[in-house]
Design brief:
10-stranded mixed sheet; 12 strands; Spore Coat Polysaccharide Biosynthesis Protein SpsA, Chain A; globular; alpha/beta
Amino acid sequence: MSAVLAPEPREPVSPGRQPSFSVIIAAYQAAEFVGDAIRSALDQTLPPFEVIVCDDGSTDGTDRVVESFDRPVRLVRRGNGGEGAAKDTAARAAEGDFVVLLDADDLWLPSRLAALAELAGSRPDLDILTTDAWMVAGERRVGRVYHEGWRFAVSDQPLAILERNFVFGGAAVRREALLAAGGFDPAARWTADWECWIRMIVAGARVGLDDRPLALYRLHEGALSSNRARLLRGRVRTLEKARRLALDARERAALERSIDHHDRAALVEEARQAARLREADARRLSWEVARDRRFDSVTRLKAAAAALSPTIAGSLLARRERGRWVGAGGTTIERD
C-alpha cells in the first residue's frame, strides 16, 4: 500500500487528466551508467513522452551511448557548464507537461512514472512530485532515502525547504511552473535542484510524495565522496542566494540558521580533506576551525591538534577512511 504525503489543498480539487512526462538526464562522463538509466526510463509501464539527455561536454563516449537509442531518446550537447546548466538546457528542450529528473547513474523501477501520473491526476494543485527510493551501494540496498532521520515535509514546506532539501532528486516538476520560476540556475554547479525548489516553494509551489521506493539511488565513490567539500560549499552558496527572496521573519531566521549549519559543515570537511590529501593549506584550515567559536570545544581541540601536526592528522584520517566512504546525505558505506 502506498501513502501520499502532501499539504492539504488550499481549495477543493477535481481529478485532472493524465499528464505527459519528459524525462531529462544531465550527463557528464557518464558512459558507464547512462545507458542503464535510459533503459529504466524506457521500460516504464507508462512510457515517457520523451527522454532528453544533455551531454555536458563529456569526453568518455557518453554521446555515443545516447545516440545508440532510437526515439523517443534525444541528445542535446553543450560545453561543460555543470549540473545547473545541463538540467536547464534539457528542461528548456522538453515538451511534456512535467519534466522528470533522472540522474545519469540512477535507475527507476518500472511503475515509477505511472505512480507519478496517478499522483498528478489526483492532486493537480501540486507542482513538484516525487517518490521514495532505495539507496544502493554496489548490489546492496543500504536503506531508503526517507527514514526516521530524514522525513518528507508535509507542513510549512517554505520553511522546511530553507532548512534542508526534503525533495528526493528524481522529482517531476510541472514544466510551465518551472519555466515561470526561471528554470534551473545555469550558474549552479552543485545543488541545482535545491536552489530551484527553494525559489519555487517559497513562491507558492507545493510538493507531494508517493512514499513507495520506486527508484534506485546509486551511491558510489566517484559520485560524491571525493567532492564532498565542494558539495557542502555549494550548499552554502545556494542558501546565500536565497537571501534575495521575499521571506517572512521566521523563514529568514531559519535560512540564517541553515547557512550557519552548512558553513560549519563545509569548514570541517575542507579542513579534513586538506589534511587527508596533504594539501599546502591544511594547517591554515585546521586553525580556522580551531579558532571558530561556533564549534564545540571537542571539535576545536581536534582541529587545533590537526593544525599542530597536519601530517599525523592526515595519516590518521586516511587510515580511518580506507575502510569506508561517505555517500549522499552523509551515508557512511563500509568497503567490502
